[in-house]
Amino acid sequence: EAEEADGGAVSYALAKLGMSEILAENIFRPGGGTTLEARIRSWALFSSYLRTLGRGPLNYVCALLRQTDAVSGLLSVLVAHLPTPGRRAKATASPEDVVSLRDVVTNSRYLGEEDYVTRGAAAVYRSLLHLMPASVGSWFTEIKNRQMISDIEKYTSVNETPRLIGLELETISSRGDLEVVALHNKSQVVTRYRKDDSTLELVIKLPGSFPLRPVEVEFTSTFGFGEAVLRKWLLSMRSFLRNQDGTIDDAIYMWYQNVEKQFEGVEECPICYSIIQPSDHTLPKLKCRTCGNKFHSSCMFKWFSQGKATCPMCRSLW
Question: CA torsion angle for 151, 123, 15, 278 (degrees, to 10)?
Answer without folding.
Answer: 60
